[in-house]
Kojibiose phosphorylase
Amino acid sequence: MSEALFRGYEVAPWELRWHGMDVDALQRTESAFAVSNGHIGLRGTLEEAEPRGLPGTYLNGFYEQHDLPYAESGYGYPEEGQTVVNVTDGKIIRLLVEDEPLDMRYGQATEHDRVLDFRKGTLARDTVWSSPTGRRVRVKTERLVSFTQRAVAAIRYEVEPLDDDLQLVVQSDLLANEPIESDTRDPRVAAALESPLVGEYHHAEAYHAVLVHQTRRSGLRMAAAMDHKIDVSDGVRTHIEAEDDLARLTIAVDVPKGGRLRITKFLAYGWSAQRSVPAVRAQVEAALAGARQTGWKGLLAEQKAFLDDFWETSDIEIDGDPELQQAVRFALFHLLQAGARGETRALAGKGLTGPGYDGHAFWDTETFVLPVLTYSIPDAARDALRWRHSTLDKARERAAQLGLRGAAFPWRSINGAECSAYWPAGTAAFHVSADISDAVVRYLNATGDDEFMRTCGAELLFETARLWVSLGHFDRRGRFRIDGVTGPDEYSAVADNNVYTNLMARRNLFYAAEIVGQHDDIARRFEVGEDEVALWRKAADAMLVPYDEDLGVHPQSEGFLEHDEWDFEATDLDFYPLLLNFPYFDLYRKQVVKQADLVLALHLCGDSFTPEQKARDFAYYEAITVRDSSLSAGTQAVVAAEVGHLDLAYDYLAEAALTDLHDVHNNVRNGLHLASLAGAWQGTVAGFGGLRDHGGRLTFAPRLPPQLRRIAFRLTFRGTRFQVEIDGESATYHVITGDPLELAHHGETFTVTAEPVRLPIPAIDPGPAPTQPAGRAPARRRPKDA
Amino acid sequence: MSEALFRGYEVAPWELRWHGMDVDALQRTESAFAVSNGHIGLRGTLEEAEPRGLPGTYLNGFYEQHDLPYAESGYGYPEEGQTVVNVTDGKIIRLLVEDEPLDMRYGQATEHDRVLDFRKGTLARDTVWSSPTGRRVRVKTERLVSFTQRAVAAIRYEVEPLDDDLQLVVQSDLLANEPIESDTRDPRVAAALESPLVGEYHHAEAYHAVLVHQTRRSGLRMAAAMDHKIDVSDGVRTHIEAEDDLARLTIAVDVPKGGRLRITKFLAYGWSAQRSVPAVRAQVEAALAGARQTGWKGLLAEQKAFLDDFWETSDIEIDGDPELQQAVRFALFHLLQAGARGETRALAGKGLTGPGYDGHAFWDTETFVLPVLTYSIPDAARDALRWRHSTLDKARERAAQLGLRGAAFPWRSINGAECSAYWPAGTAAFHVSADISDAVVRYLNATGDDEFMRTCGAELLFETARLWVSLGHFDRRGRFRIDGVTGPDEYSAVADNNVYTNLMARRNLFYAAEIVGQHDDIARRFEVGEDEVALWRKAADAMLVPYDEDLGVHPQSEGFLEHDEWDFEATDLDFYPLLLNFPYFDLYRKQVVKQADLVLALHLCGDSFTPEQKARDFAYYEAITVRDSSLSAGTQAVVAAEVGHLDLAYDYLAEAALTDLHDVHNNVRNGLHLASLAGAWQGTVAGFGGLRDHGGRLTFAPRLPPQLRRIAFRLTFRGTRFQVEIDGESATYHVITGDPLELAHHGETFTVTAEPVRLPIPAIDPGPAPTQPAGRAPARRRPKDA
């Protein structure tokens, strides 16, 4: 069969399909095929559990603690780390065909397809398997994590004997403390994760079972429950049992050729730091009752309706590059999965698709992911920011520990406490607090959500503003300096006056002051005095933004442009990513950039640069940026598009969008890169669409690369849903629902209404294309099947 | 008795005496009372082993390895640490008086004196102890580690019943794997050190025994052997036994009132990374045979002769401050003990007096300790530099690993491999390689040791010169920059163009080039080409030395003077040392200095500054230097004296000299601070004597503070031993042995001969005294019993 020859993802506009069986590819497909609602995440493992890359069942916010070891400790070093826990696995459904276990490593899979459907919101599988002795069955499965019933997942499992009557035995499990491999070198971290859950309660009866566990050290409690619906002609025997770490429903039945065994497995998960065993048990049993009541078809229908609405709001159409079209929808789908039902929990760097980064959330969320959510499903953006707000006490404690005022948000965390064990790239990266403020301002501009502003937003802005004035100082010449901090680029650290950080801090201070100016009552509530606001404004006005007049370029940080050049010609391409082959000390002291830093400032603080500065800065940093970070390509796409290098922007957009599908960084097995997925949106909407949101108004500067015929995307702003459609010559704007909006198109203000308005795209001559370090240019994008 | 009232050190010119028994003070007195010859070190524990602070028997270079843990690891991080091992303890001699063990915690010590004699080179004890039931004995002991027989230590032990005939039982032990407390937080380090020695061989016969052990992981092998001579009237019964970790000679005898039991215990130690069990056993048994042959009196006589010669060469006399006189001799004595017989092993930061700093050697050795040895016992300086030379391969490997050429010496090590687990204050402190070169140049200037130059010195200079040209670069304006490194001050890190580092590197490059110019053959042997030397000279000539014209001050590193001031007024004095109460990030980004850095440059590279610059720089840095490091006071004394603040210099000299006797840093229990002890010499000789050795010639600029009547010190230079004697008005120079020398006195060249030449001291008006951070001025020195 032809499928047996082609193994890999197939290009299609609304789904991600993998043809054929490839054990070695399981780890990476498991991440891509993960289903999640932001609360529960299930990696795309096969139902029979093996072969597998990494099992993975995650609950947002559920983690174990462990000591952080230091050979040389220091004041303020975090003493405890947090790591996401692989919780009780409810995905497992094993099958015995006569006396032979279904295992894709044995016998032969003559057909094997897996499909993640972006509109249905399910992962489906269709396998025809011939056992080692030649018995053939078709196994069809479909699974979902419900967007509408937050605690619920469900699996439809169907087996059909193809040639003979067959005895089938199915074992449907809840399995805790699955053995997993760990990458960690630290024996204590490995020990903490080897068997993280302590059984507290188990119960099984009829077709349902529940297990309750608690982590050893973080003290979090979780429950998992399952129930089943069995459809088969007759003669079924079942047995259910439960012990500490396993609950199992065993189903035995003789199925005639052409007959079918169909099982629906309903799963419910819940966890709490405070609730008792009976309470968390009750929680999951209630959820299960709801799921049973809704039924499989009901869950499917709810899922579809939820997704219809999402795509209606948020779809991006790309004509001229079907693979890119697929990748962008894949990205949007996973961003939705990560953020939809997070609800005041962290939105982790990998979402709930894998154990990478220990399950921690970073600044990526606010800077890359939240813009997508803000203009697509703003409630999800709000919830993510509420999580930050819920951690304010920890951020204030951290600031106090560091000798600062206000709030210092962590570089990496699950529960809000700093978990970074390397301060030059963690604690010193204070920009995370400005990034959070920026996300708050963006959300407030996009929604006018007064309640959020009063309950969360203002306080976040005030406390971060307080951080900045305590972190910086006025120098002899009256300039406000922020010394000894680390910007976004992880190949530099602990430098003075990082342009990105200073500009973002300036904006933070400015908006905090603006809110005080507009809302006396809020200022009073948070005890912001006149002197304090005056100081915020003074610091913002005096903020130092270093610039090299000689070169006509902004240094990433003070002194950067004096540093030695990296010898790219002499750097073997096998030595990338550089951090695995060169010491930090060498990377930090040379002009080599891991990821957009000054270029990110060109995007997010573009109103602080002239077009000429942007062009020169972009060209300068292009030549020294190696893109060893998955965060970079999307931003480079955005700025390349702005300065008119549209081919290059297209290449970067494709790299960002395909990061995980092409496994560019060779680590997708640990989970998807949410920020890269967001980069697909950024590259399209902020890149070719030219979307900017400086000063509370949306502006566009659309331009397409010659390879693309048309891009259309939809945004939600202040309750108005509108579409932007771009072709080679013009852009057409119209409101889908809601009030008219004032926008700008290439600098010209206009009002968009339900009536499409078509505006021409002015020509641009960007001059010669910038160069990249030897061997580090993005792949030239040649659209397939365009 | 009056002694019972006064507990503490008594001031005396040639000894350190502690009166009375104070269990709580044992830990610190054990360090001060340590006896050592640079190869073997015995802490000053009581013979009966308990009560004790820390037992401690050390062999220079003998260490155990352990993993270095990192919560976040990075390329080039050292994976293995090294820690000095407490080896088999041969100091132990226990006493049973009738049925009561001698234990100073029970019964009563009516007399108890311990004396470290600087001229005899022994630690003596005189105790009258009354047992809980009132039996009185006098116990007199004396111990030495032989300067002349490197592998040998010996103890004379005497018991005298004072009131009655008494049965005495003495147990003389070799005890391996003594239980010790460890400060480490890391369970793996603690485990490695809990029981580090694996017994390989034991043997006992007659009065002698030997134990051979190997470390578990570093694979080093050591042997300890003991033999005894017993003097007692008659009726003595002895028994000897040995097992893996213990060998014991038991001596039982009835001693009449007025009689005496006298035991001489000879100890021998040896270790090897390569030799077999029989070989190391043979080595210690041979040493023991030599010691027995010499006998106790012979060992005492050799020790005395060795010390007579040392004091003849190296004594410093101070009139007007007896405590300072004692402290300076204490310092010289311990520096001798640390360096005398190191012989191609590291000279550790604590010498062999305690387990502090894990027994590692640092740059302190070359910068602070070796100048003392160079002008006192130059062979010891040579041996210490030979150790560095013996680690060149490891330093070259490290440089290669870091992407550099030449040799990068470790920040901390026992065997030459980098053990620093915190790179910003370890690897980045490249100045250590310049410090080593500087010590080489100083030694060569002082001795003209051509053989050392050919076998070690030139290669050390060349390989470090290669490091500098690969570490720095020429910038757009042709200046040679060394970016991203850490200077001496540990409250700054990873900065550009540290003045100290750049000046020391410049000197390193200059002298490397000079040697090539003078010795074609050597240049050829080490493959130094003309282009390479030209590059060294070019880099030296173009070396960037930042200077702030506005302030008229040198920044410690580029940008330093722009940084925020530390709020000293708001810093509680309990918060010192600051590193225990403030994060590195905050210390690094502010103008707060832990220890002399730019001020050390003013001393060591004084020929690169004008007198006016020195005065301004010193005043500027005085105001921000908190002296949280024991390395600082000596250097501040030197520069304070040079710029004319003689009272301040006197205060700093006293602080340096008394660091350990007064336990200024509250950690002398872990060992003495060799660099502070060296600071006592520096403050006297380079401070009030004004000794400098720029350019191969010794110059002096003597000046006394009003509190001191006279200082005299002796130096050895190019084989000539000469004395400098300073009083309030003049300095008198004369040669003791050797040829005349050309020196300078306050800028005037003169020739010193056997005929004393007396030269007047010019007046100086230093202007107002500089200030120190609030609460951090040195204590005002008021000499006692002057």
Residues 1-5 of chain A have pLDDT under 50 and may be disordered.
